[in-house]
Design a protein that fits this description.
Number of helices of chain A: 0
Order of helices and strands of chain B: EEEEEEEEEEE
Helix content of chain B: under 10%
Number of helices of chain B: 0
Number of strands of chain B: 11
Shape of chain B: globular
Oligomer: heterodimer
Structural class of chain B: mainly beta
Distance between the termini of chain A: 37 Å
Low-confidence stretches of chain A: none
Distance between the termini of chain B: 37 Å
Radius of gyration of chain A: 13 Å
Strand content of chain A: over 45%
Number of strands of chain A: 11
Shape of chain A: globular
Chain lengths: 110, 113
C-alpha cells in the first residue's frame, strides 16, 4: 500500500486549460511538497505546505490537513508546463524522510 | 534557496563496474539525502548522509552496494558498486533549505549495460 496516492497518473490538456492534480495521503504529516520533474530527470521543488494555500505565478497549491488531501492547480496551462508532478509528504516523527507519490505525467498540447 | 549540483549528469557503465556520483550544495547542510528513481517509478530513499557519522540506509539498501561519503557539510558522494542492469536509474541527492523546503540536484542518469 502506498502512503501517498496521486491522480490522475497521466493527463493531457490543451494549452490554456485549467489543470488540477490531486494527492491523498494516509499518514500524519508535518509538511507536503509538490515537485516538478522535467524529462531530463532534474527535480524542482514547487511548494511546501503545512496548511492552507500557496500561489506562485500560475501555480496554486492547497492542502486540507483534516481530509489528508492536497491539490495542485495550473491556470492557463502552457506546453512548458509539461512535466511529471510529484506529491511528497514528510511524515511526523520520522525526521526528513519523505513518502512520494508515483507522479502525474502532464502533457500540454499547443 | 539552495543550489545543488551533481556530477556526472549521465553515464553508461559496464556490468560489474562501480560509479561514484558527487553532490555539491552551495550552503552548509546537516543532512543530505540520496534517492533512486527506477524507470517509470517514483523516488525511493536510499540513505541519509549526516556529516561526521555513518549514513543511515533504508530497508533494501546496504552500505556494501551503495557506500556513501560525507566529508563536509556541503558535499557527499554515492557509489553504486558492482553494477548490474537493474541499477539503471536516475540517482538524485537532496538537501533541506533554511525554510525546510527540499532542494534536489539535477540527477544522474545511469545506464548499466
Amino acid at each position: 500500500k502506498n502512503e501517498v496516492e496521486q491522480s490522475p497518473q497521466n493527463l493531457t490538456a490543451q494549452e490554456g486549460e485549467f489543470i488540477t492534480i490531486n494527492c491523498s495521503y494516509s499518514v500524519g504529516i508535518s509538511a507536503l511538497h509538490w515537485l516538478q520533474q522535467h524529462p531530463g530527470g532534474g527535480i524542482v521543488s514547487l511548494f511546501m505546505l503545512s496548511s492552507g494555500k500557496k500561489k506562485h505565478g500560475r501555480l496554486i497549491a492547497t492542502i486540507n490537513i483534516q481530509e489528508k488531501h492536497s491539490s495542485l492547480h495550473i491556470t492557463a496551462s502552457h506546453p512548458r508546463d509539461s512535466a511529471v508532478y510529484i506529491c511528497a509528504v514528510e511524515p511526523t516523527n520520522t525526521g526528513n524522510q519523505f513518502y512520494f507519490g508515483t507522479g502525474t505525467s502532464l502533457t500540454v498540447i499547443p | 534557496s539552495a543550489v545543488i549540483s551533481q556530477k556526472p549528469s549521465r553515464d553508461i557503465c559496464q556490468r560489474g563496474t562501480s560509479l561514484t556520483i558527487q553532490c555539491q550544495v552551495d550552503s552548509q547542510v546537516t543532512m543530505m539525502f540520496w534517492y533512486r528513481q527506477q524507470p517509470g517509478q517514483s523516488l525511493t530513499l536510499i540513505a541519509t548522509a549526516n556529516q561526521g557519522s555513518e549514513a543511515t540506509y533504508e530497508s533494501g539498501f546496504v552500505i556494501d552496494k551503495f557506500p556513501i561519503s560525507r566529508p563536509n557539510l556541503t558535499f557527499s558522494t554515492l557509489t553504486v558498486s558492482n553494477m548490474s542492469p537493474e541499477d539503471s536509474s536516475i540517482y538524485l541527492c537532496s538537501a533541506p533549505g533554511t525554510s525546510a523546503e527540499q532542494f534536489f540536484g539535477p540527477g544522474t542518469r545511469l545506464t548499466v549495460l
